[in-house]
Amino acid sequence: MSTETNQRKRSAGKHIRRWSLILLGIIVLGIAGFLLMPAPVEPAVWSAPAAPSFEQDGPWKENSKLSSAELVTDRAKFPEFITFDATGRLYTGDSDGKIYRVAFDAEGKAQPAEVFADTQGTPNGLKFDAAGNLIVTDIQKGLLSIDPDGKIEVLATEVDGGPIYLANELDIAQDGMIYFSDTSNYGKVMFKEIAENKPHGRLLRYDPQTRQTTVLLKDLYFANGVALSAEEDFVLVAESYHYQLTRYWLKGPKQGTSDLFAENLAGFPDNITRDEQGHFWVGVFTTRLAFADYMHSHPWIAATMSKVPQTLLNGASAPVKHGLVAEYGPEGELVSSWHDPAGTLYGITTAVSQGGYLYLGTAPGGSQGVHRVLLKP
């Protein structure tokens, strides 16, 4: 081998080592800069309770009750909430702003879905009032009313002189009062809020007579699903990030106060619906994320994670592929849980008992389309 060739190889080796050291230096400086960069939040310390076991006997024990779910329609990709009109037609919103209507034939078979309205936002909660108007909580547009012809009216976008940040879910009392959640002043779902672990949500009430909105509860940990009791003496609101259902008393000696209705759910509770027996059905968007629980008790980890761009953390907060619904009695007792451990159906946001079926909806990140299972197979 010639001297000239050896010199070229040595020169190339020096260049490679030099650039490797420069690259290593850049990486080290980047890591150091990231660690020294101030965190955008100051996380609160919380020791989350140990998650319920799916293996032990009891109402949380794993089963396959949801594994036989049949598709009703996939026209709505992510049907966050599901409701029915007086004639039994199904309504659900999608993340692109459209609200779909599905009729059923005499044998109960779903007919092709049709667009009922388009809010140009993101309709989540849906419920018909006594006049036949579809009341909608839209996370971008606020509280809306849609008449039978699809005409949209904005009911509320502000409360106490400030904005309603993220109108999420609702229920309507017999006197027309609308109870709904304002999920978070972050205005959208962000991993940073999970890391911060501080309450930013509210429970609101809209009076259609005065057209006034008031705050009933504040400082909720990601206020989500809302449902009235059968006697309408209390209203429930899900606090997703603390795995609990909070009860606000509307009547009786505890009127105007709140307490815990159910705690230590096996995941993040989303929407709540009530059936004819007065039982509450809770869609669980994802089973517990071990890393999130660990992060809450180690705030330095939470602070570090809060610096990471949201786009890089979307996968970290994606739902576990395990479908889950919980059924609670009127006193807060867990009656049963419904599972799809195979994860064909997952990311469940809502479960509605209707006509012998349990109708199931999902949100972005989960499986797609409206599904249903027989309540008594």
Which helices and strands occur, and which strands form pairs?
Blueprint: H1 3-36, E1 70-73, E2 82-84, E3 90-93, E4 98-102, E5 114-118, E6 123-128, E7 134-138, E8 142-146, E9 152-156, E10 158-159, E11 162-163, E12 167-172, E13 178-182, H2 191-196, E14 201-207, E15 212-220, E16 223-228, E17 234-239, E18 244-249, E19 258-262, E20 267-274, E21 280-287, H3 290-296, H4 299-305, H5 310-313, E22 323-328, E23 334-340, E24 348-354, E25 357-362, E26 370-374
Antiparallel strand pairs: 1-26, 2-3, 3-4, 4-5, 6-7, 7-8, 8-9, 10-11, 12-13, 13-14, 14-15, 16-17, 17-18, 18-19, 20-21, 21-22, 22-23, 24-25, 25-26
What is the approximate shape?
Answer: globular
Total strand segments = 26
Gyration radius over CA:
24 Å
Strand-residue fraction?
A: 35-45%
**Number of helices, counting only DSSP H or I runs of 4 residues or more:** 5
Q: Helix coverage percent of residues? A: 10-25%
- Could you say which structural class the secondary elements and strand pairing correspond to? alpha+beta
| Terminal Cα span | 82 Å
- Low-confidence blocks of residues: 26-32
Strand line-up of the largest beta sheet: 1-26-25-24
For the residues shown, what is the average pLDDT?
Answer: 91
Largest sheet: 4 strands, antiparallel
